[in-house]
């Protein structure tokens, strides 16, 4: 039986779901001769660590308790009674992860999973890679920092996986990695990589005002608490950057042209979320409706896409043929079209649910399992 | 630099293209610290082996010469002047592969690539796996033999890859493997997995007689020399069996319901290819045209698909909604829809070129590269 030690940072939606998946897959993984040993779990305030990381782990009762408490909004720091593990505060947690990586990197190996949305994990992750350990990311921030940081993180390309940073669990990163590894050069990627914006753009097409659609999306839980985090396009830009770097481009977030779906003067610094949704947003309705109408006259639809081509990455609303995969997209599905030597005239298309904790955590788990050959 | 020894069986279209890809990717792979060392190449009559498999390989000049000669239809057995390698005849070749696997399995590891279309490689491949070596398949036959053979071949699941057996280089096997590994149970797969039949079915939809379309497909090089090899559905049945076994079903080729697109009395035992194409086939035109018409009245199209669901695998022509991924398919693209817990209402869809030596060989090469962590 191969025992893979894992540390999980972040136990909000995705991290908690990952813990549940790990417990639920015990029998399946055991059949393949694998055990995922969770030796540490962090949230934003503290960290639980097994008493002896070489021989012990947080057992399934402890993991179930963590899931339950986190679903109630409890902080890990309050779980002093949980037994068989140590609790560290935020400042100590960073050193703990580095120490565990140092110790296990020399013996069995370790996988550190970043399910946070923080830009502060980067430094720790670089040290984890330096220690000879593995990193799995659902967090886009570490990969979308400077090119220098990116190169450091990916310096041992087999030891880092990040499927769930783009299109949740959809096998986009794995597929592009395969295409690139076979020497099939990718010259164009077009994608609709935001479930939220996919939903919004396909709804406005039916004649509904943009502001109403955004409000409905917020009610349905499709948007961030402040929908401007989606409408700014920055989340899509990060995904596009990850894809562009994956196909070998040396570019930065600053190099990407990003169209925001609201004017700058309605930004978070000038207006509350309530004012934005209650009044500001409706000022954009007319413009969007007009663009939808113009597109429709040409047999096109308006979609919020990323376009990676000719050394440029663009993120914004574009007129797309109704007949294309992206034009036909409905609901909150994601789709990506990859054009390469082998997929020149007709692209390689990958489509499916691109959001949700279940599928995002499933992507992280598949990454973890795929790292198994690197463990002793 | 990690040096991965490779033996390639079959140097017709796919095998030859693989050799070219390997040579063309030298710089790319070297950047990742990898060298693919081709220590042996077989065709149906003989085998070339490097003089010392531990330290030498067939160099790029030799590989280029092999590609050139095979493209001219020359047998490897005629390449006695090629230098720096030994030539073995067919009977010796089998023992050679087993010997090489035995020797390298204990040291660096070895990957044996099966690019043949033969059912005779199975026994050797089982011994290769037994020796602790890896197997990469473009050949469907070894995986579609008895369940016992399948279990033997996949007994060390990380050491066998077979992306190019289904949908050429399309990342279908890799994607389903990821879904399964994350505990996301697949309950339904629908696919259009024959470029030839995809082309035929979408052409008859435009009103052309079935027999004319098949003849055109043959002229375009889309079919096997005897188009009945495609029209029988057995090739699709093998692909469906590989997918069904991948999601954990213990079934055999016999268990699959396969609809042939020509009546049994027009089979290869009763009729020559010429008689079949020249006369027999047109007797089917009316029936197919009628089925296309009936489907169309309901807003459907007729497609030749595989359906894996409810413990049954069916392969044949079915009415499919025009609006679905499969219904919209044009040309010789393949598409597969995967339904699982995470992709329940809307499936995970993978679409693209599902035939061609370039993409098939690219899939094999991506498999080889993905095995790298198993090599010392």
TrEMBL record, chains A, B:
Its Enzyme Commission number(s) read 1.1.1.3
GO biological processes: methionine biosynthetic process; threonine biosynthetic process
All residue ranges annotated as the Aspartate/homoserine dehydrogenase NAD-binding domain in the record: 10-155
Pathway of this protein?
Amino-acid biosynthesis; L-methionine biosynthesis via de novo pathway; L-homoserine from L-aspartate: step 3/3; Amino-acid biosynthesis; L-threonine biosynthesis; L-threonine from L-aspartate: step 3/5
Q: Which residues bind L-homoserine?
A: 224
Report a single Gene Ontology molecular function.
Answer: homoserine dehydrogenase activity
Annotated Homoserine dehydrogenase catalytic domain ranges read 171-369
Does the keyword field hold Transit peptide?
A: no
Organism superkingdom: Eukaryota
Name the protein family.
Belongs to the homoserine dehydrogenase family.
The name this protein carries in UniProt is Homoserine dehydrogenase
Tell me the classification of the organism that encodes this protein.
Answer: Eukaryota, Viridiplantae, Streptophyta, Embryophyta, Tracheophyta
